[in-house]
UniProtKB/TrEMBL annotation:
<keyword id="KW-0812">Transmembrane</keyword>
<keyword id="KW-0813">Transport</keyword>
<feature type="transmembrane region" description="Helical">
    <location>
        <begin position="222"/>
        <end position="244"/>
    </location>
</feature>
<feature type="transmembrane region" description="Helical">
    <location>
        <begin position="36"/>
        <end position="55"/>
    </location>
</feature>
<comment type="similarity">
    <text>Belongs to the MIP/aquaporin (TC 1.A.8) family.</text>
</comment>
<feature type="transmembrane region" description="Helical">
    <location>
        <begin position="86"/>
        <end position="104"/>
    </location>
</feature>
<dbReference type="InterPro" id="IPR050363">
    <property type="entry name" value="MIP/Aquaporin"/>
</dbReference>
<feature type="transmembrane region" description="Helical">
    <location>
        <begin position="6"/>
        <end position="27"/>
    </location>
</feature>
<feature type="transmembrane region" description="Helical">
    <location>
        <begin position="61"/>
        <end position="79"/>
    </location>
</feature>
<feature type="transmembrane region" description="Helical">
    <location>
        <begin position="138"/>
        <end position="160"/>
    </location>
</feature>
<feature type="transmembrane region" description="Helical">
    <location>
        <begin position="167"/>
        <end position="189"/>
    </location>
</feature>
<keyword id="KW-1133">Transmembrane helix</keyword>
<dbReference type="InterPro" id="IPR023271">
    <property type="entry name" value="Aquaporin-like"/>
</dbReference>
<protein>
    <submittedName>
        <fullName>MIP/aquaporin family protein</fullName>
    </submittedName>
</protein>
<dbReference type="Pfam" id="PF00230">
    <property type="entry name" value="MIP"/>
</dbReference>
<keyword id="KW-0472">Membrane</keyword>
<dbReference type="InterPro" id="IPR000425">
    <property type="entry name" value="MIP"/>
</dbReference>
């Protein structure tokens, strides 16, 4: 299990759970048709949890180029590893989106709303305004990255002086804080753009949408916003974190 394979599998599972819930809520004839934002944000959060469980022990489970760039900026990983991480994240997102299409293929066929079909793959603005949409992605990703920097594993102090710390191993449940973080970002900030906060999460599935036999546009004119916005937000969070902790 290399970094590349771990990021592919972790991101693939994230996208299957995330884009899958959108398909379940949006596409015609599904058991979950018409379900709301709570279901969507919850499944995205749990998708992060599952992805981290799989990839965490092997790659740290970035699952997101914005996380990778932030950690490289702050010295958490070497810049030489960034291409491998991002390649895994993008490939995983592509595979995950394809499998969502496989599962819901019959429902895509009977759904007439081309915009709804695109929403099962990539994000889009509720109100199209370049500055506002970009700002939403920057702020959402800033919150994600900045809080991730402050998520620490639990420890206990040992010895008479209490000077020795021992890390408590929580296994898979150690991924819960990140899941809660993604959940609250979706609930609080996701209503404007669908909170991509992850360039691979948007670009990979959008590529899949463009290759499948859909009549509607893949909206490539908007596609740069969920790529550039998260990277800017990640860099702002990284520089602020370094300024506060140096």
């Amino acid at each position: 299990m290399s970094i590349l394979i771990a990021e592919i599998l972790g991101t693939m599972i994230l996208i299957i759970c995330g884009n899958g819930v959108v398909a379940n809520a949006v596409l015609k004839g599904t058991k979950g048709h018409g379900s709301g934002w709570i279901e969507i944000t919850t499944s995205w959060a749990l998708g992060v949890f599952l992805g981290v469980i799989v990839a965490g022990p092997y790659s740290g489970a970035h699952l997101n180029p914005a996380v990778t760039v932030a950690l490289a900026t702050t010295g958490g990983i070497s810049w030489s590893l960034v291409p491998e991480y991002i390649a895994g994240e993008l490939i995983g997102a592509i595979l995950g989106a394809f499998f969502v299409w496989v599962v819901y293929k019959d429902h895509f066929k009977i759904t007439d709303d081309e915009g709804g079909k695109l929403a099962c793959f990539s994000t889009g603005p509720a109100i199209r305004n370049t500055v506002s949409n970009l700002t939403s992605e920057i702020i959402g990703t800033f919150v994600l990255i900045f809080v991730i920097f402050y998520i620490a594993g639990p420890s206990i102090s040992l010895g008479i002086e209490g000077t020795t710390d021992a890390i408590i191993g929580l296994g898979s449940i150690g991924a819960i804080p990140v899941a809660f973080l993604v959940w609250v970002i979706g609930l609080a900030l996701g209503g404007t753009t669908g909170y991509a906060i992850n360039p691979a999460r948007d670009l990979g599935p959008r590529i899949v949408h463009s290759l499948l036999p859909f009549k509607g546009s893949s909206d490539w004119s908007y596609s740069w916003i969920p790529i550039v916005g998260p990277i800017i937000g990640a860099l702002i969070a990284s520089f602020l974190y370094m300024a506060l902790n140096n």
